[in-house]
Design goal:
By secondary structure, the protein is mainly alpha-helical. It is 53% helix and 7% strand. The longest helix has 31 residues.
Length: 208
């Protein structure tokens, strides 16, 4: 694994590349590809912060969901609480843990849009390790995911969440506040992913 030091803003920021690449200027990185190699500038600071926030947006709901999956009371009552209680702990626990891990893994991929491994596939990845990432292979699914997440977030923010809390067996009082605060960060996941994807497209497609 080769280490590439990129100091784009004089801050000593160090980036790690998992495939051969060379630093050709203080603010550029050349991905391998022979004559097709091209200089890709690093992500701006705002994009790095947005990608980090997107990756963390699923953590609060994941923690809440895992705790709920292990049977910790989260405020549900009546038949709903009884139905959940039959499988938590149990298969309900597995479901909550897997769902939380999957959501965080997908959110973590946002970081690839601002890191060198979003330009070159890490060598440890089977079959495709060390290959240059085709920009559209990252841009298209990221944009589609951004649109879907933004729509779902807006739908929840402007109606569905309130309707769910109005159900008779839903959490009340402090439990409802805790659950709402845990899921609220998901609203920004889609917009943040979209903004970072647009910047990634600007930096990669503009260098073709």
């Amino acid at each position: 694994m080769s280490k590439i030091a990129i100091d784009a803003r004089g801050t000593g920021h160090r980036a790690w590349a998992a495939a051969p690449a060379v630093a050709v200027a203080p603010d550029t990185l050349v991905a391998p590809g022979g004559r097709n190699a091209r200089a890709v500038p690093p992500a701006p600071r705002w994009a790095e912060l947005a990608a980090g926030a997107a990756a963390l947006s699923t953590v609060p709901s994941g923690v809440w969901r895992v705790a709920f999956g292990f049977g910790i009371p989260m405020g549900f009552t009546g038949a709903t609480a009884a139905a959940y209680g039959e499988h938590q702990p149990g298969w309900g626990t597995v479901y909550c843990v897997v769902l939380s891990a999957l959501a965080e893994a997908l959110a973590f991929l946002t970081l690839g849009l601002v890191r060198p491994w979003g330009l070159v596939v890490p060598r440890w990845v089977p079959l495709i390790g060390g290959r240059r990432v085709r920009p559209l292979a990252a841009i298209v699914p990221a944009l589609l995911g951004s649109v879907m997440l933004t729509v779902l977030g807006a739908e929840g923010l402007f109606g569905r969440w309130a309707a769910n809390l109005a159900e008779p067996d839903s959490p009340r009082g402090a439990a409802a506040v805790v659950m709402t605060l845990a899921y609220l960060p998901l609203v920004v996941w889609g917009p943040l992913l979209g903004a970072v994807t647009v910047d990634y497209a600007r930096r990669t497609l503009g260098r073709r």
